Here is the input.
Amino acid sequence: MTRILAILIAGLICEAIGVVFLSKGLKQVGEVKQITAVEIWRVVKAGIANPNILLGVALETVFFIALLVLLSRSDVSFIWPLTAMGFVLTTLTAKFLLQEDIPPMRWLGVLLIMLGAGIITWTEKVKERQAKTPPPALNEAPR
Here is the structure.
């Protein structure tokens, strides 16, 4: 399980930093003012040439590859909820790299996400311990 958590944390760090770079790049490109072919083409052209967007996409790709590896090795019901830890890392990254102001209620939400991820990790450890415990013998009465 240590290897799975290491891959997950590395992937989530890439995701958090990638999201921050995507946000920074998209703010540099500017919002879509109208839904027209010309305006969409302007945004696509600017996005393709923006180093922050390119770096963000590359880091999100690394996260996606890590997720594929994790889902091939473990239960979806274990891995997918733990990806919520990405919210925690992304919030921290936004605070320190983008200097975003994070209100206390948002920090409380981040704390609840961390609590949920901790419970999920604990249930996986319980499951592993139960798998190591041999089943009782057929002729033995349950205690």
The two ends are 30 Å apart (CA to CA). The helical segments are 2-29, 37-49, 51-73, 76-82, 85-97, 104-132.
